[in-house]
Design brief:
It is a single chain. The chain is α+β, with helices and mostly antiparallel strands. It has 2 domains: about 160 residues, Immunoglobulin-like (Sandwich); about 90 residues, Sandwich (Immunoglobulin-like). Helices cover about 40% and strands about 20% of the residues. The chain has 9 helices and 12 strands. β1 and β2 form a beta hairpin. α3 runs antiparallel to α4, α6 packs across α9 and α7 packs across α9. The chain binds dinuclear copper ion (CUA). The site of dinuclear copper ion has 9 residues, from loops. Dinuclear copper ion binds next to loops.
C-alpha cells in the first residue's frame, strides 16, 4: 500500500492496465465453450496433424519468450547505470552475436523437418477416398460427387472414417476453402485444380467458410460439412441420385410454372427441363438445412425474403430480383418445398 501511494497517477494507471490485461489473458483460457470453427479442437486426423505442429511451435515459442524476457529483465537490472558506473554495452561482441544467430537458425531448421514432412504426408491422394469436386462461386459452394452423378450446394455430406479427396475449382475469382475442425485452408483459383483431403472422425455438422476476400458477400460465403455414418451417407447419396419429385398441384404447380419460365435460366432440377448451371442445382433443395452460401436457414419465411430481393438480403448476390408479386413468391416457395 505504501508503495502504491508512492507511485504517480500515471504509474498507477499503468499498473492497473497491466493487472487487467494479465487477468483477461488468464481468464480467456477458462473458456471451455469452443466455437464451431475452433481449429484448436480438431475432429479428424488431417486437422490433428496441423494442430500437432501448432502445439509444438507454440510450446517452443513460449519457452523462448520466457527465457528471453527473464534474461532481458535480469540484464536491465544487473547492468543498469548506477551512480559512478556506466550501463554495460554488449555491442560488438562477435562470439555472442554468432551464438544468438545460430540458435534461432537451428530452431527454425528443426521446426521445418516435421512441417515439411506433414505437408508431404498430406499431399498424396489417400487410398479408398471419396471424390468430391468443389466449385467456388460468388458467393456459394457447389459440390459434385462425380462417381455418383450427384450435384448439390453449400452442404457437403461425407461418410465418417473415409478420406474425402477434394478437387477445388474456381469459377470467377479467387476463394479459399476452409473447414477449421477438419482441415486447413486451400485457395480456390480459377483455371487451376487444387487438391486436399480430410477425414471426419465422428458424425456431426462442421462449419466452414471462404477465407479469401472475394467480394461484397465474402463473409456470407459459408458452408457446412455434414458427416454421417457410412450407411446413412450411402442412403443420402442414393436419395440424391433420384430425380426430383414428379407432379405437383395447387400453389406448387403455379410455382413450378414460374420456375420453369424464369429461374430455369440459372438453376437445374434433375429429371426436368431445368438445366441452368449458373446458380445452385436445386434438385433436392428441400432436403438442405441452409441456402445462399449457408447464410440462411431453409425456412419458408427466409426463402420469401430471399426471392423478393436477393441482393437486398445478401450484398452482391448474383441472383436478381425478378419483381415477382408476393403471391407469386409464395407459389415458388411452395414449389421449392416439394423438392425433397
Ligand atoms: Cu469466396 Cu471469400
Amino acid at each position: 500500500m505504501e508503495l502504491l501511494k508512492r507511485l504517480s497517477a500515471s504509474g498507477r494507471r499503468l499498473l492497473l492496465g497491466v493487472v487487467v490485461t494479465a487477468f483477461a489473458v488468464v481468464a480467456s483460457a477458462c473458456d471451455t465453450n469452443v466455437g464451431p470453427q475452433d481449429y484448436l479442437s480438431p475432429e479428424g486426423p488431417v486437422a490433428r496433424k496441423a494442430d500437432g505442429l501448432w502445439d509444438l511451435t507454440f510450446g517452443i515459442a513460449v519457452a523462448i519468450f520466457v527465457i528471453v524476457e527473464a534474461l532481458l529483465v535480469y540484464t536491465i537490472i544487473r547492468f543498469r547505470r548506477r551512480p559512478g558506473r556506466e550501463a554495460a554495452q554488449f555491442h560488438g561482441n562477435t562470439k555472442l552475436e554468432v551464438i544468438l544467430t545460430l540458435i534461432p537458425t537451428l530452431i527454425l531448421a528443426g521446426l521445418a523437418v516435421p512441417t515439411v514432412k506433414a505437408i508431404a504426408d498430406l499431399s498424396d491422394k489417400p487410398e479408398g477416398a471419396l471424390n468430391v469436386t468443389v466449385t467456388a462461386k460468388q458467393f456459394w459452394w457447389q459440390y459434385e460427387y462425380p462417381d455418383a452423378g450427384v450435384v448439390t450446394a453449400n452442404e457437403m455430406h461425407v461418410p465418417t472414417g473415409q478420406p474425402v479427396y477434394l478437387t477445388l475449382e474456381g469459377a470467377d475469382v479467387i476463394h479459399s476453402f476452409w473447414i477449421p475442425k477438419l482441415t486447413g485452408k486451400q485457395d480456390v483459383v480459377p483455371g487451376r485444380k487444387n487438391n486436399m483431403y480430410f477425414v471426419a472422425d465422428r458424425p456431426g455438422t462442421y462449419w466452414g467458410q471462404c477465407t479469401e476476400f472475394c467480394g461484397l458477400s465474402h463473409a456470407n460465403m459459408r458452408l457446412r460439412v455434414i458427416a454421417q455414418e457410412p450407411a446413412d451417407f450411402e442412403q443420402w447419396l442414393a436419395e440424391q441420385q433420384e430425380p426430383a419429385a414428379g407432379t405437383v398441384s395447387g400453389a406448387a404447380a403455379q410455382g413450378q410454372e414460374i420456375f420453369m419460365g424464369t429461374c430455369v435460366n440459372c438453376h437445374a432440377i434433375g429429371g426436368t427441363e431445368a438445366r441452368g448451371t449458373t446458380g445452385p442445382d436445386l434438385t433436392h433443395f428441400a432436403s438442405r438445412e441452409t441456402f445462399a452460401g449457408s447464410m440462411f436457414r431453409n425456412t419458408p419465411d427466409n426463402l420469401k425474403r430471399w426471392i423478393d430481393n436477393p441482393p437486398g438480403v445478401k450484398p452482391g448476390a448474383q441472383m436478381p430480383d425478378y419483381g415477382l408479386s408476393a403471391q407469386e413468391i409464395d407459389a415458388v416457395v411452395a414449389f421449392l418445398q416439394t423438392l425433397k
